[in-house]
Amino acid sequence: MVPSDGLTGINYNIYSYSMAANSRFAVATHLLVGLGYLPLHSPRHEPERGLWVNSTLLAESVNTNPVVVRRLLGTLRKSGLVVTQQGKNGGVALGKKPEDITLLDIFRAVGEQSVFAFNPNPPNPRCPVSMNMFNLIEPVFRSVGDALEKELDRVRLSDLISGIP
User: What integer pLDDT is reported at residue 46 of this predicted model?
Assistant: First the structure.
């Protein structure tokens, strides 16, 4: 049941926080940091693999199933953020230098469009709040989105990797 005020039937479930509901950006960032860090620092990484990391090691880092990791790596490969190699010592590696990858690149690669989503329901024509909500909140959403993109573009993958002791 959608919350309302009980009088006008106004739907107070106005916003959907897509970042809270969708962890693809967070997991993709985790994977890419892992690809930059694990080959040089993990005792579990096999030196003969070089910079190639297998999806099992990445899945252990994220604490999820390797199938989930492989699907997300496929998305990152399409954007050029990772490269893959088949074979005994194959795996996945960064497709670019960590200093050349921004968090905005990752955000866009996994298909994130915005932090917020608008109410998918049409406005209630009998309610002045409902009829005006889009015009009231859209500039705020746009401003937050612009600030988010600016901040994500400022942070490089290398910044995150260097933050691991």
Answer: 60
Q: Give 115's contacts (C-beta < 8 A, 6+ positions apart).
A: 17, 18, 19, 141, 144, 145, 148
Contacts of 58 (CB under 8 A, 6+ apart): 31, 34, 35, 38, 66, 69, 73, 92
| Those residues with Cβ within 8 angstroms of residue 125's Cβ, 6 or more apart along the chain or in another chain | 131
**Residue 149, pLDDT above cutoff 70:** yes
Q: Where are the domains of the chain?
A: 19-162
- pTM for this model (two decimals): 0.77
Contact of 110 with 161, CB cutoff 8 Å: no
CATH architecture of the domain with range 19-162? Orthogonal Bundle (1.10)
Secondary structure (DSSP) of 135-148? HHHHHHHHHHHHHH
